[in-house]
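Worked example

This section walks through a single chain of length 248. The input is the sequence exactly as stored; nothing has been trimmed or padded.
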Amino acid sequence: MSKKITAAAGLAAGFAATAWAVRGRSSFVFDHSFWRGQPGRKAIAITFDDGPTPSTPRVLDLLEQHHVPATFFQIGVNVKRHPEIAREVLAAGHEIGNHSHAHINFALKPARLIEADFSRAQSVIEDATGFTPTLMRAPYGVRWFGFRQMQAKLGLRGIMWTVIGLDWKLSADAIADRILSRVSDGGIICLHDGRELAANPDITPTIEALRRVIPSLAEAGYHFETISQLLWPANPLTPDRTASPTAS
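Given that input, the structure is written out below as tokens.
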């Protein structure tokens, strides 16, 4: 019996270790990922995944109202659908990152597929906006063998998060409560201006949560930065607001 218990415990530990390696926000197994900024600075980075979508301009309007820069991790398929919205994100002074082309769960996938998918998204984003992403976020936060080589080849730094809003399934109040109860100096907040590959998603809970979260964080003394400003303040990679994006 004790051997069975030991074996089961070992198996459980193995599963836990694998889960951390694949999706742990501080995991360095498949390449280093940044999940927070430097403690001691009252700075926050708000990020959005899964866009651009027809709902993205609603997010841009709210950010402009509060003078908040953000980072948008965009999906190649969605950029091809809405290149004009991708350009609108960049023109508003926000940062764009690579969130893959087809939003695949890359666990157990071959390295050649991982590289091909992110490379395709990189090309689509460049063609649509004239901007070359230097940041990436894996779909579902799942990394696998091949990420290290892909990131090195494409020049992409991996970004995770300090707190994820679960805004694809929670109410606006629950999203806001989750963020405000977990945020801290240097925090990276993960929200969504899309819902994976959905053509016209309803992101109302995300918008309504933001209406509460942004003023609350500002009142608490936080200021808002892009990921590059947060992580590399001496050498930010944020695009030039005066740059003219190219036509698709």
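What to look for: Confidence is low (pLDDT under 50) at residues 5-17, 239-248.
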